[in-house]
Every structure is written in C-alpha cells, then in structure tokens.
Design a protein that fits this description.
By secondary structure, this protein is mainly beta. Helix content is 5%, strand content 48%. The chain has one helix and 13 strands. It is globular.
Length: 150
C-alpha cells in the first residue's frame, strides 16, 4: 500500500513532466491567456535542477521579463536587473547589479538563465503567443517548463 503526501503541488506535478534537453534543443510553449475573462494572467514555471544555460525568447520580441519568485524584473534590451521598491508611497525602479550567483545573463536581447531551482515568471499578455526555451549549454540535462493560463 502506497501513500502520496502532497507537500508542494508544483513539485509533485512537475516531477512527472521533466524533459531531457540536449545542447541546442528548443522547447516551444504556447501562451493562451483567458482574455474572455475580466481578470486573467499567465505564468511560466521553470525548474532547472541541472543548471543548464537556457535562453528565453518569445515571438512578441519581449524585452522585459518578470521573475515573480524573486520579485525581480529583467530588461534584456538594457541588460539590467530591476527591483520595484516603494519609497514614501512612491514606486521606484532600482537597478541592481547582477551577481555571479544570480544565474542571469543576457545574449542578443534575450534572457539567459542558469539557476538551479524553480522560478515562476509572469508572462501575461492580451493575445496568444509563444515562448521558446533553448539549451545553449554544451551538455544535456533535465528541466521542467510549463505555462499556466488562469
């Protein structure tokens, strides 16, 4: 008799859907926001336990990515990490230095990630589009990626 304990729904579900990526392999994900609802949003979940170097791009040529896990924003055009802070009831964008342990880089106006943990990105848009994740590492490894539309 087996017992399943649901401690972290994302981890349980994602453990069943890991993909092994070879060097230069791409995964295309469709973002299909529920635009017929009054309120809608879409998230991209990435778990990269092997620390592959993954290049993220979209067919909307987005240059701004929101990391909901760490409350950070990445501007791929300016190659900057931004943090939105509140100061005297005013929201201010602070530029932060990208450290060697951040697992973030930029290449050709695209975001490159290499962190070894799960992150969630806000990928909400008012139209259907696709995101491409490309393994630019020189090695294979497993990842989990999926888009959730609410």
């Amino acid at each position: 008799m087996g017992v399943l304990v649901l401690m972290n729904e994302t981890k349980i579900l994602s453990g069943l859907n890991y993909t092994k990526m070879k060097p230069s392999q791409e995964i295309k994900l469709d973002v299909k926001p529920n635009i017929d609802h009054l309120e809608y949003y879409s998230t991209l979940v990435i778990d990269n336990p092997d620390g592959l170097k993954l290049q993220m791009s979209s067919n909307t040529n987005t240059t701004f990515w929101e990391n909901k896990t760490d409350k950070e924003y990445y501007d791929t055009k300016k190659k900057k990490k931004l943090i939105l802070k509140e100061d005297n009831d005013e929201l201010i964008w602070n530029e932060e230095i990208i450290g060697s342990t951040d697992g973030i880089d930029f290449k050709d106006n695209k975001l490159v990630i290499s962190f070894q943990e799960e992150k969630t990105f806000d990928v909400t848009n008012n139209k259907y589009y696709s995101i491409t994740i490309k393994n630019i590492s020189n090695r294979s490894g497993k990842i989990f990626v999926d888009v959730y539309n609410y």
